[in-house]
Amino acid sequence: MAKVLCVLFDDPKDGFPTSYARDDLPRIDSYPGGQTTPTPQGIDFTPGQLLGSVSGELGLRSFLESRGHTLVVTSDKDGADSVFDRELPDADIVISQPFWPAYLTPERIAVAKRLKLAVTAGIGSDHVDLDAAIAHGITVAEVTYSNSISVAEHVVMMILSQVRNYLPAHRTVLEGGWDVADCVARAYDLEGMHVGSVAAGRIGLAVARRLAPFGVTLHYTDRHRLPADVEAELGLVFHPTVEDMLPHCDVVTVNVPLHPETEGLFDDELIAGMKRGTYLINTARARICDEGAVQRALESGRLAGYAGDVWYPQPAPADHPWRTMPHHGMTPHISGATLSAQARYAAGTREILESWLDGTPIRDEYLIVRGGALAGTGAHSYSAGATAAKR
Hints:
By secondary structure, the chain is of the alpha/beta class. It has 14 helices and 13 strands. The strands form 2 sheets. It has a 7-stranded mixed beta sheet.
């Protein structure tokens, strides 16, 4: 029987919900491109409920325990005496979310003698050291596409909130003011601007499709160029490198995975090549942007704004400089954790577990590492030797 160690974020401060703002979710059976949404044999939860916190348990307890397996759920994941570290040595399967990542470093993997499967409930497996997973024969899987559209919507929201100066204007209302001039002194229209995406995978392309109706010119750079008909449909302008694209853009959105080639990409030098007053949006991974460089660019006015929901480390400490830098629109890592997304990635996690425990193949699109090599989505998104989990 397997021991499943699941790391999830804490329950709400006022307790696990007993009711919700809505009674149901729209039914979605497939994603753009035709991939179907998760198809587990069954689920033991109500879609639209809070599943990603400790008490939600991703809806897995009944399923696993009915088969004789053990489920350990915790939010305590940091420090040598954390529940995660205490339970890890005899865990067969580890599950965590990008929003509350259990960092599977080489050191942790070395003591996890029984670990055979690491699952990301969501997308983005850079909290797992993929080289170490490859070396130890650990399969790494994630619920590909489960929250890609959720993140894309968050990107569009953040672009508009930055360009329109929404957050300071809303704060004016909360504080009882009516300072129109102050609110609009940094507010612009998105229409007519040039928006560039660093990568045009599932999220980057979804962002482009949602921005096209705003009357913007869309740019992108990616090591995998899109088909000509897609470029023509959206009016996409391709650039071979990030450096080539940035001088053309008023808004830049980062949608590329974290690996050694992208870590620290947006440093002082790269940001200096951007137009003064560019808005930078990062919902990918925090370490793609140099922490100090972003702060300095906002303070100097090189960047007009920075918004995102990814931090390093996660959760971010109370004194993290991105909490107090000027003209930012940061949120906790929530872009892919809507209740809608949780229903999909909880179902996808169960689908992966069903396949693993039944000895049947895991969907190729869910795979990051298998059989000592990058596989599936991992082979498309990463390069050999390009891994993270450095905390």
